[in-house]
């Protein structure tokens, strides 16, 4: 699992003008044989023109001898001679891709950290609840709480109070009292479990009736994190919980991204602190004004960088420096991502958003 500190190491890595390899693999060997994944990796190295001898590349050596193949995603980074090598297995699969450039290609990692960082799940029923803390698709901690057993009245009046007028109604009242007490106790336990855990989103599972009652018992802080409710038995296994909530997380992120793009485009149209299009966005990155950078997934563009100042530009006519003062790069967008994150800005990698695509695939909400 990659940390923010490890991401910062990649962002600050200096290769002294030599190419840096970045390779992302879907390593889910439950759907594809391991040998086929290794073969694809060799093909990607050949595509990047980094497998030119019979000597195995450091990536191949890692896959053959060191990787344990328990995670469905893997990001690897290496310099030209293999003296710098980093590998980060992840619980979320990557789309297969390879890049070489002056800096490590970190856009997929930025996407991973943005979408799957610190979320929580609660499964609840009338008796108790289970709590889950996830980060980057991996389970970090789980606990549960059980309350008093609910004694339901049998249909037809069969109960311990048969023969007493109103006995069924009394038993129903007692049952509801027990259920409410269990739900309140579960809500208190949830507050304690998540109190010191930095979750950004919360998902609540159970029956529609139980979740509707339970969410109103949660403290305001947890209610503000609640992204979605869903139907699931409290006895579901952890794999089912993770699979379901990853799908819900993707849907919640897509909705949030749509609102963010609309906000950026609206601010720019009104003359506010936002820019759209490659040229204006790169200028804002160079001026260190970007608060949130938004770009279409897979968007790339050639350009130039001044390696001393970090100034990036796609159009030489927009640059105060001459072409001789700048270094030509295959993908100036990735350099903009790295610069934004280094400056403390936020990056959003967005898929299938027509509004962003019409705005030039890239834009930014600015600090000022």
Give the structure's gist in a few sentences:
The protein is of the alpha+beta class and 368 residues long. Mean pLDDT is 90; it is low at 155-165. It has helices spanning 4-12, 34-47, 58-65, 107-116, 167-194, 208-215, 220-225, 238-269, 278-286, 332-342, 354-358; strands at 20-26, 73-78, 85-90, 97-101, 119-124, 128-135, 138-146, 201-206, 226-231, 274-276, 290-296, 303-306, 311-313, 327-329, 346-350, 362-366.
Question: What can you see in these coordinates?
Answer:
The longest helix has 32 residues, at 238-269. A hairpin with a 6-residue loop joins strand 2 (73-78) and strand 3 (85-90). It is globular, with a radius of gyration of 26 Å. Residues 155-165 have low confidence and may be disordered. The protein has 11 helices and 16 strands. By secondary structure, the protein is an alpha+beta fold.
The structure class reads alpha+beta
Kindly report how far apart the N and C termini lie.
Answer: 34 Å
Give unreliable regions as ranges. Answer: 155-165
Percentage of residues in DSSP E strands: 15-25%
- Major sheet: arrangement of strands: 7-6-5-8-9
Q: What do the pLDDT scores average to?
A: 90
Gyration radius, in Å:
26 Å
What is the overall shape? globular
Question: What order do the SSEs take from the amino end to the carboxyl end, as H and E?
Answer: HEHHEEEHEEEHEHHEHEHEEEEHEHE
- By DSSP, the count of extended strands is 16
- Major beta-sheet overview: 5 strands, mixed
What is the helix content?
25-40%
Number of helices: 11
Oligomer, anyone?
single chain
